Every structure is written in C-alpha cells, then in structure tokens.
Amino acid sequence: MNESQIMQLKQYIEEAHITTFYGGAGVSTESGIPDYRSREGTYTKMEAANQDPKKIMNRRYIKNNPIEFFNRPEPERGKVEPNSAHKMLAALEKSGHDIRVITQNVDGLHQKAGHRWVLELHGSGRTWYCMDCERVYLPHELQRDKDNVPRCYVDNGIVRPGVVFFGENVQPENLTKTKETIQKSDLLIIAGTSLTVFPANQLIYEFKGRRVVMINKEKLPIQQLNVDLYIEAPVGETFAALNAHYNFNL
C-alpha cells in the first residue's frame, strides 16, 4: 500500500454515486476475530485437529450432536470492537456518501460502528433461534441445560445462532437484494474475502458499474471482472490511511 493508491481510492469514493463494500472475514481480523482459511484461521485449525468444518458447522450435526457442538473448545476473546474499516465506512456514510455494506461476517461490527445500510449475507450471531419452533432469542437470554446446550423454554428445542452454516442456503431475499445492490452500484470494493464460498463468490459478477477495488492481503483470481485498483494490505490499515485525508474522529 502506498500513498498514491490511497489517493486513488479516495477519488473513486468521491466520484461514486453508490458504493458497495463487499466484505469477508478479513475485514474483522484486526478486531481480533480470526478468519476461516488463513494459516491461523478457524477452519484451518479444525482441519489440523482432524475435524471436518463442513461436518461440524452443519445444521444436521447441531441437531444430532448438540452436546459436542456447544462444548467445542473455542479461542478466548476479549471484548470485540469495530476497527478502522468499520468506523471509516460508517463515517463516510454519515458524511453523506451512499456506502452500502454487504458482509459475509456475522459479528455485527458494522452496525456497532454506526453503519445504517448493512446486509448480512450469512445471517447474524446477534440473534439465536429455536430449531423446532423458531422462537428468537438474544444471546444474553439463553438458558442452557445441564450439558450446556441452549434450550427453548417453551418446547425445549435446541437454540442455535442465526447464521448460515454449511448445508444451508442464503435467504432468497438477501440474495435478491445483494444482486440488485451490486447491479446499481458504480463502485465495488471487495475486501478481506477469499471468495471461496458459494454463492458469495459469484455475486460479484453482477457488477456492471464503473470501477472495482480490491483490498486483500493476497491477490485473488477473479474472472470476467477487471480490477482497477488492488491494495495488498490489511483492510483496517488501509481505511486508517484513508482517514488521514478525511480526519474523521474515529
């Protein structure tokens, strides 16, 4: 990342009528949330321990093996806060830029930063629901049985996070809204995503606008889509550098 790239990014944002920010796990790693497929990623570590993410992070596994699922060892995390990417995007929106966030993440950090237009493609961990009756719960409302399995207090069903796991489909209305948003945007910023998960890796090809920016630690093979600006750097670090030209109080 160099100064000329940051200036070019600023110019693209200033010239755009509608900007879609299409983000993946790499947007939140600087907030302390691990990604999935990097060397230290959640799924990489599971595979190193001879665990199959596609089998375990699956609706059927939760239903048939709730004790094992809810008692999996998970990394300890402190309080997770938005980083410069989340904050800068929200500040740009608040200043009058039409920035529309489509995220593959389920952490709610864009909303916590104050962003108003956020579409969570893979659901959200901010709400849970009963797998039997679909009653919705907030995380602090969960009641767990003696085996640490969250249970619905009406029908004793298993209560799980409201996220899209392997073997589940993205909500049709979210797919439709994602396609429509990307199609009407004139700037597409693809950031912090490996573009390996279907259908998220195909939705970018709905873009018919003017410019594409990619911000990622490594280049990705994108067919049929010309990238006008590629910034090989962490996403938060990039937006922190961009803020030097805006001086928002992040």
UniProtKB/TrEMBL annotation:
Ranges in coiled-coil conformation: none
Gene3D superfamilies the record matches: SIR2/SIRT2 'Small Domain (3.30.1600.10), TPP-binding domain (3.40.50.1220)
Sample GO molecular function, one term: NAD-dependent protein lysine deacetylase activity
Keyword set includes Lipid metabolism: no
Record-listed E.C. numbers: 2.3.1.286
Enzyme class, first EC level, given as a word: transferase
CDD domains assigned: SIR2-fam
Deacetylase sirtuin-type domain residues: 1-250
Protein name: protein acetyllysine N-acetyltransferase
